[in-house]
């Protein structure tokens, strides 16, 4: 018996044995629960998929648009694609040029072959050789030769007479400009003899002379005097002392053959010249081979090639007296717009700077979108658990272990997350394709080859973002499940009656943490601002560091306010229920009492709807503000509808023209409403410290007021009032003028103060009438620090009449200052604009360096980097709207379904359906009203504090090569941002109200549909 008792005691009790959570059991339980909650799981999966799609779409869209921007910059001008190898050699022959090429070309091809086009351009400049025949005006006159292939020469000149040089001719054939041919007294067909000095012995550098015979075969004009092909040569006769210098064009092969014959005299590989020759090879980049995926690699290859050339040829000296070994290099350098130098950044570095600026708002917006989606996913997880809370509790009460319940629900969540991962990653590609086709101009859509030509590579590039989104969603889901799987039937009933468990953010006091971070962020931003105002930070650091830091305080303040409200809201509901109990309205009392006992559902919906509302408001304000800023910057850069430098007076009139004469001529052009001319020049302050570089604009007040177009931020005074004060100011030996804020603050000026400026070696005394914040066309806040000193650039605005009087006094003669700048106001009619542009382009009145306000605005709005930002904003606004719709409808439906029993009990106690609907209406009205008020408040807070720091200034691709990095960074903060609250906000508010009404109507229908008996039977355990 004892043995039997002992054995019985050793046997474990069946009731105490923990069920094993085998995979088969978990899978079976998951399959059973799928039938009950499959639709809700699918909606949760859709939320996870949306997060994955957005996390994949944003970087892919950025890659496509950044690639389009990069290629647009490279295609804006052939110059932007150039890589120049400048060599100086002291010898020439066909073999020598071939050997030089064989040394240099492998250095280029080894690193850049995949990125280069087949186009290669070579030019050679031979220093001046003495002219023997025809007899020159002075015995020292010389002719310099510029050599290239006849085809390349023909692309850059226009023939006036004759033909292009023939490389196969027995004589070296020559082209001259009309002016050179006239001064040299030659015509087409004449022979020219030059004297060449060459070195006989490289060791002793003893020299001899020989003659070179040329035949003039044509007269030409350069297609563009500023063409980089000419290496700065104007081909106009030049005089230095008593000698005249001329420039001519020859065929490169013909020149090599001529020097080959001279080399035979010395029996060497080439003719060693007394002076070095300049040989340039121009390689052209293939824009389609460069993208954001290989930009870093390409930049690194260019940098290494630059370093390799410097290491190999850096020891050469152009001024060395000793002759270097064959092939007689003097120096070799890599230059071009793409290459960084000690003083300037190349286009690639500048483009990276643009991306760094544009990525700040994109990153902030993306994080906001993803955070909103993850909140939605977390809410869906809680709804999923709440929907199954009774079933989970019943399973736990009937013997299922927490591991089995947790495993089944986790398996469902993981499976739905994996499916969302696959679907989201695949859907991101067509979504990016759709957005790119919608946003980008047709000329930039070739950047889509980053996806279409290599979809697998695009998928692999987006996969880390997709996995991160999936993991975050799974973690949020598992944390929610872990809380629910430990509850039995009694716990569920208690939690449904009155919420006792505080959310984790309340237990961790995350609202206090967010408030502390906001406070620290505010002080850090204040400290950085003080440093910036003191001039200790350069403009690049100000833009890249100060702006992001200024976002810390408002963002975390918003989070702290949101969490604080969620902490206080239950207490407000409790207070409201107590006050309502004293009134005669039962519906209000029941609604507030129910919400006070179990506020979790109300808090959940309030948080989602308020954040969706705030983000929608923020997105709409940001979009309108960014568009307004683009318009303001285009207006600022032009200063009028059109502006530019005036043409030379000699092309218009034989006598000098006054500003009124110029204005009359421009006013006669079709489409011109008004015109104004004046004088624009640069100078610097004189006799004060620190020295400020200034740009002075002397305008005609009468016409400038009606012609110029200034942004509202430029001046607190209206432009007509500024012009009236300029016109009526007393000169009294000084130049009355307005100065911008940079000059005003740097020199610590006051109205009536005077200071001197030096312009063209003449000193002018300026009397200050007042300050304008900014003078359009002047980048007046391009300040920097160097060697501990502040370098600033500002502007001065004065009248042409006053400055002309000072000019005449300084010159001590009655010659008027020649106007050199024009501003035009034109009609907005498209046909008239087209006619005006065509007429001006073909008129002697065409403006030099013309700035077209409308063209700048269109180019800035079509900048791919700007369009990328617009795409993210579209995604954000759509996401906020969809989440508000789905979240509110679904949450309301589940809440109503879960409370059918409570409403049935109220019906059984004698409450009418209208009274039940009234209770529900009060509950939802409180939630929706609180959500809208919070959303409007938080949206306004975000808009006023964050939007000014996030707006970016794009630049047209055509201007990328003309703006230095300092000017680009200065443009980002040039004008204060004007917040724009568009009418679309009202439309968005109406849509949100309609969503709330629809959700409320659906809840009332759900509550009113089932009978009391059906509701009570459905609630049986």
UniProtKB/TrEMBL annotation:
Any one Gene Ontology cellular component term annotated for this protein: plasma membrane
Keywords: Cell membrane, Membrane, Transmembrane, Transmembrane helix
Annotated transmembrane regions: 40-61, 362-385, 406-432, 465-484, 508-529, 549-569, 602-622, 865-890, 925-947, 985-1007
ABC3 transporter permease C-terminal domain mapped to chain residues: 364-479, 876-1009
Membrane topology type: Multi-pass membrane protein
GO MF, any single term: transmembrane transporter activity
InterPro entries reported for this sequence: ABC3_permease_C (IPR003838), Macrolide_Exporter_MacB (IPR050250)
Annotated family: Belongs to the ABC-4 integral membrane protein family.
Iron-sulfur found in the keyword field: no
Keyword Membrane tagged: yes
Protein name: ABC3 transporter permease C-terminal domain-containing protein
Location in the cell: Cell membrane
A Pfam match: FtsX
């Amino acid at each position: 018996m004892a043995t039997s008792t002992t054995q019985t005691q050793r046997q474990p009790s069946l009731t105490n044995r923990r069920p094993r959570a085998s995979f088969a059991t978990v899978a079976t339980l998951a399959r059973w629960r799928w039938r009950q909650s499959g639709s809700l799981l699918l909606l949760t999966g859709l939320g996870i998929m949306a997060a994955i799609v957005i996390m994949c779409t944003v970087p892919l869209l950025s890659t496509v648009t950044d690639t389009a921007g990069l290629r647009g910059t490279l295609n804006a001008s052939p110059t932007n694609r150039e890589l120049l190898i400048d060599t100086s050699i002291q010898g020439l022959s066909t073999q020598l040029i071939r050997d030089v090429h064989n040394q240099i070309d492998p250095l280029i091809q080894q690193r850049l072959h995949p990125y280069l086009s087949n186009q290669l351009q070579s030019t050679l400049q031979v220093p001046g050789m003495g002219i023997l025949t025809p007899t020159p005006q002075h015995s020292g006159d010389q002719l310099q030769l510029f050599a290239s292939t006849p085809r390349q020469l023909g692309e850059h000149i226009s023939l006036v007479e004759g033909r292009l040089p023939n490389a196969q001719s027995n004589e070296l054939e020559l082209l001259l400009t009309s002016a050179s041919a006239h001064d040299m007294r030659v015509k087409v067909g004449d022979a020219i003899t030059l004297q060449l000095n060459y070195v006989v012995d490289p060791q002793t550098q003893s020299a001899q002379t020989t003659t070179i015979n040329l035949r003039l075969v044509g007269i030409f004009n350069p297609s563009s005097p500023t063409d980089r092909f000419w290496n700065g040569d104007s081909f106009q006769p030049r005089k230095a002392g008593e000698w005249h210098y001329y420039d001519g064009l020859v065929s490169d092969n013909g020149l090599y053959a001529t020097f080959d014959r001279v080399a035979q005299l010395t029996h060497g590989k080439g003719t060693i010249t007394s002076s070095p020759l300049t040989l340039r090879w121009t390689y052209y980049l293939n824009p389609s081979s460069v993208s954001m995926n290989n930009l870093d690699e390409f930049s690194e290859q260019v940098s290494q090639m630059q370093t390799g050339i410097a290491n190999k040829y850096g020891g050469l000296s152009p001024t060395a007296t000793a002759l270097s070994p064959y092939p007689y290099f003097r120096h070799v350098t890599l230059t071009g717009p793409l290459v960084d130098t000690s003083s300037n950044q190349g286009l690639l570095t500048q483009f990276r700077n643009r991306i760094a600026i544009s990525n700040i708002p994109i990153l902030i917006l993306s994080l906001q979108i993803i955070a909103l989606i993850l909140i939605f996913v977390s809410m869906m997880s809680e709804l999923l658990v709440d929907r199954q809370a009774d079933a989970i509790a019943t399973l736990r009460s009937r013997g299922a272990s927490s591991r089995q319940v947790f495993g089944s629900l986790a398996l469902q969540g993981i499976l739905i997350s994996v499916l969302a991962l696959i679907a989201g990653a695949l859907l991101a590609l067509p979504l990016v394709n759709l957005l790119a086709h919608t946003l980008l101009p047709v000329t930039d859509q070739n950047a889509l080859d980053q996806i279409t030509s290599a979809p697998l590579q695009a998928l692999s590039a987006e996969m880390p973002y997709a996995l991160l989104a999936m993991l975050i969603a799974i973690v949020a889901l598992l944390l929610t499940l872990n809380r629910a799987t430990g509850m039995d039937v009694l716990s569920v009933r208690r939690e449904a009656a009155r919420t006792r468990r505080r959310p984790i953010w309340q237990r961790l006091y995350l609202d206090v943490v967010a408030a502390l971070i906001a406070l620290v962020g505010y002080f850090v931003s204040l400290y950085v601002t003080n440093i910036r105002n003191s001039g200790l930070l350069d403009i690049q650091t100000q833009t890249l560091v100060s702006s992001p830091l200024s976002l810390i305080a408002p963002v975390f303040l918003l989070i702290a306010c949101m969490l604080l409200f969620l902490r206080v809201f239950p207490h407000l509901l409790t207070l409201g229920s107590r006050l309502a109990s004293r009134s005669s309205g039962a519906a209000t009392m029941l609604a507030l009492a129910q919400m006070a006992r179990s506020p979790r559902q109300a808090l959940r919906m309030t948080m989602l709807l308020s954040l969706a509302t705030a983000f929608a408001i923020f997105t709409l304000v940001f979009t309108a503000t960014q568009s307004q800023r683009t318009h303001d910057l285009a207006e600022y850069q032009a200063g009028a509808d059109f502006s530019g430098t005036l043409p030379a007076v000699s092309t218009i009139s034989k006598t000098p023209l006054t500003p009124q004469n110029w204005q009359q001529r421009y006013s006669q052009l079709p489409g011109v409403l008004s015109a104004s001319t004046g004088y624009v020049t640069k100078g610097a302050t004189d006799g004060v410290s620190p020295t400020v570089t200034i740009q002075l604009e002397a305008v005609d007040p009468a016409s400038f007021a009606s012609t110029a177009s200034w942004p509202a931020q430029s001046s607190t005074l209206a432009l007509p009032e500024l012009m009236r004060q300029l016109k009526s100011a007393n000169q009294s030996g000084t130049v009355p003028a307005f100065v911008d804020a940079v000059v005003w603050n740097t020199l610590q000026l006051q109205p009536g103060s005077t200071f001197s400026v030096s312009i063209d070696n003449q000193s002018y005394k300026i009397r200050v009438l007042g300050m304008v914040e900014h003078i359009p066309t002047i980048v007046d806040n391009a300040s920097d620090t160097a060697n501990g000193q502040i370098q600033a650039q500002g502007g001065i605005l004065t009248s042409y009449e006053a400055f002309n009087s000072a000019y005449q006094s300084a010159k001590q003669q009655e010659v008027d200052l020649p106007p050199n700048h024009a501003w035009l106001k034109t009609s907005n009619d498209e046909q008239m604009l087209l006619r005006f542009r065509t007429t001006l382009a073909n008129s002697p009145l065409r403006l030099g360096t013309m700035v077209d306000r409308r063209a700048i605005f269109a180019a800035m709005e079509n900048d791919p980097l700007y369009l990328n930002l617009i795409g993210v904003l579209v995604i954000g606004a759509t996401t906020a709207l969809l989440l508000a719709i789905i979240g509110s409808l679904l949450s309301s439906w589940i809440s109503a379904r879960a409370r059918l029993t409570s409403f049935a009990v109220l019906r059984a106690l004698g409450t009418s359906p209208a009274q039940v609907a009234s209770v529900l209406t009060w509950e939802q009205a409180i939630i929706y009203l609180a959500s809208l008020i919070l959303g409007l408040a938080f949206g306004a807070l975000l808009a006023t504090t964050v939007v000014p720091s996030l707006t970016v200034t794009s630049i047209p691709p055509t201007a990328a090569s003309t703006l230095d990095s300092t000017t680009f960074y200065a443009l980002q903060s040039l004008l204060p941002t004007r917040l724009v609250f568009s009418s679309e906000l009202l439309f968005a508010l109406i849509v949100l109200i309609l969503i709330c009404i629809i959700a409320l109507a659906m809840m009332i229908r759900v509550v009113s549909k089932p009978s009391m008996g059906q509701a009570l039977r459905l609630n049986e355990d």
